[in-house]
């Protein structure tokens, strides 16, 4: 017999709030992680301080996505008010100013988002925040919400920072020679020249301060450390660091399918090139080369007499030599564009070499695409990533800095010509492509780690 009582409403879905600093290289992997978590049945909301330079949907609250849990749909509810700059504020172009601004005003804005979720009947079960946003996990802890960090660089770099800032290993001093050895448990052979730049950066640098804040409090603020890597790539580093931190390798974090987007101008240009003939050049969203460096890169590319696709941001276009700036005309061998879908370009059959600054997103995308690399690291973690690509993975060569056109030509020829060295590099690149693909496939190492985290979040939700 019916009791006449209406059925109880279903319990709210476990709800993960993703929080990112508003930089493209931070946003991209967190969005991919969010879609994977949503595909596993969690309700996922993404938040940042949106601005005109970010390339993704700046939607406000999307209630329809709440019904998409289990199908990869995300909600977007961005930080607003509480003294935050407007999305069109030009100060977002100065990364140091953005970091200081968010440290001051973002905690209140984030706490307000968490409160609104509870009031709307979808309380936040866990906050996942990128590194370099230490205010996010501090704020989550202050309101009683468990936190996880998404480390968007390599586990090797995380281990270097952790051991350095906690004085767990001896490091060469800042004035040591570039060949001074670095010995950290679980890491490959490294030297002083391979250390990430923030280790010996000035203490007043805002990014060093953010890093120190992250690392110093990580064991207290993060119940999990999700790392954008995969076990096959950094197995020893992951195992060694687990003695100190609850590390879960959940990468590589980029879309595993093409994702549509149509037949853009880059794809159309690449379609016209022979297989493995083109050099792809991209230095990321933050690296700034000098006018002289741009001239040497342009001269080196021209001297190879190979087709090239070069991404040059609008804010650097005036540094190009006139001949390179005109690239893209029908009578030129190369094409210069302000932006491209990098993952799609690297996966194109025409690309035979990637000249890269070695940001971690670019590093993992190159490995997953099986493309040989010429490394030209500039700052941050890029020197360490270059060492992993060249020495540990064996998929490329180093371009000396400051570069010359002759050096660039020689490096490109080393990985693209049919020499024994070039063939070995290409073979190893193809092997890493298979390993990266297997890691994110159903049942792969990163898939299992992601599901372990999802299970933990579900358990927290069931206990509330």
From TrEMBL:
InterPro entries the UniProt entry points to: UDP_glucos_trans, UDP_glycos_trans_CS
GO terms for cellular component: cytoplasm
Protein name: Glycosyltransferase
Keywords: Glycosyltransferase, Transferase
A GO molecular-function descriptor: quercetin 3-O-glucosyltransferase activity
Pfam families: UDPGT
Native source species: Setaria italica (Foxtail millet)
Top-rank taxon: Eukaryota
Record-listed E.C. numbers: 2.4.1.-
PROSITE patterns with a match to the protein in the record: UDPGT
Family the UniProt entry places it in: Belongs to the UDP-glycosyltransferase family.
Gene name, Swiss-Prot/TrEMBL: LOC101759351
